[in-house]
From TrEMBL:
Alphabetized Gene3D superfamilies for the sequence: 2,3-Dihydroxybiphenyl 1,2-Dioxygenase, domain 1
Ranges for domain VOC: 7-131, 152-269
CDD domains the UniProt entry points to: PcpA_C_like, PcpA_N_like
Cited InterPro entries: cNMP-bd_dom (IPR000595), Extradiol_RC_dioxygenase (IPR052537), Glyas_Bleomycin-R_OHBP_Dase (IPR029068), Glyas_Fos-R_dOase_dom (IPR004360), VOC_core (IPR037523)
Name the UniProt record assigns to this protein: Ring-cleaving dioxygenase
Organism: Aeribacillus composti
Length: 313
């Protein structure tokens, strides 16, 4: 039987000022900051994780905030749009909330679904879509209550340099079901209830340039370490160059760049974010991998002070 991924584990993007990033994703969108750590490959830079109450796979957006970095350009070889699922009947709440914070938005439609389209402060493209599927997010913050809170990812729109190659990867290797084509998009879907839809844009968006306001990579889910190794073997047997397994503390990762130039990761669901903090304390303290603990004082002095602020007060 052909292997199938459950869908999106997380999406990681590059942004600018770290406090602006927290204010938007926690203060405006109401997501929980579930982990405040550093980029394991560049420890002088924060790595923030936002998600639902527990930080479950399929709800996680993560960021490398570089306040002095150059602005990127969204285009081919990147995730062009990140889509979030909101509960049925909550669209008017989110329209009013964006108005409250003076965030411009438009409405559009794709595959029969109404989409609320806007950008974050650093230029990332975001959509909100109502769907019945997916558990309600029990995290409540400010005026964002669980009956309207973002459940997790609706999916992503991939801007591929070679859409037919990317589509082949999604369907024939990752086992996503091809739902159909509408206009400039081909839709694929996984069996999960959250983070389960991937659209591939088949027309060119021009070459992307990595920088602030762009997605760095998209991660798909592996059940555990054994499942991840099976994915690694499968990808390599199909000609993809895959990295060795990387220990990211909260999950294990492998990476590869597919033929459409998009950087993919496959991340394990376990062990999760409660490995070094209790559920009630997620995101409260700066957490470092063991190899950087001896540099804690130096890193804390270098990293910009940030806090989660209730912008509704």
């Amino acid at each position: 039987m052909k292997k199938k991924t459950a869908g999106i584990h997380h999406i990681t993007a590059i942004v600018g000022h770290p406090q602006e990033n927290i204010d938007f994703y926690a203060g405006v969108l109401g997501l929980r900051l579930v982990k405040k750590t550093v980029n394991f490959d560049d420890p002088g830079t924060y790595h923030f994780y936002f998600g639902d109450k527990e930080g479950k796979p399929g709800t996680l957006i993560t960021f490398f905030p570089w306040p002095d970095a150059y602005q990127g350009k969204i285009g081919n070889g990147q995730v062009g749009v990140t889509s979030y699922v909101i509960p049925e009947g909550s669209m008017s709440f989110w329209q009013e909330r964006l108005d409250k914070f003076r965030i411009p938005f438009t409405m559009t439609e794709r595959f029969g679904e109404s989409l609320l389209v806007f950008q974050d402060p650093h230029g990332l493209n975001i959509e909100l879509v109502e769907r019945k599927e997916g558990e309600l997010n029990q995290w409540e913050f400010g005026h964002v209550t669980s009956d309207v809170a973002i459940k997790g990812f609706g999916g992503a729109v991939l801007y591929s340099s070679f859409p037919e190659k990317t589509s082949e990867l999604l369907e024939n290797i990752f086992g996503l079901q091809r739902i159909g084509r509408e206009g400039d998009f081909i839709r694929f879907q996984s069996p999960s209830e959250i983070g389960n839809v991937v659209d591939v844009k088949i027309t060119s968006s021009g070459r992307g340039i990595m920088g602030v306001g762009t997605v760095h990579h998209i991660a798909l889910r592996a059940n555990d370490d054994n499942d991840q190794l099976e994915w690694k073997t499968s990808l390599e047997s199909n000609g993809y160059r895959v990295t060795p397994v990387q220990d990211r503390k909260y999950f294990h990762s492998i990476y590869f760049r597919e033929h459409g130039e998009i950087l993919f990761e496959i991340a394990t669901d376990p062990p999760g974010f409660a490995i070094d903090e209790s559920l009630d304390a997620l995101g409260k303290e700066l957490k470092l991998p063991e190899r950087y603990e001896k540099y804690r004082e130096r890193l804390e002095n270098k990293l910009m002070p940030v806090e989660v602020r209730n912008l509704d007060e």
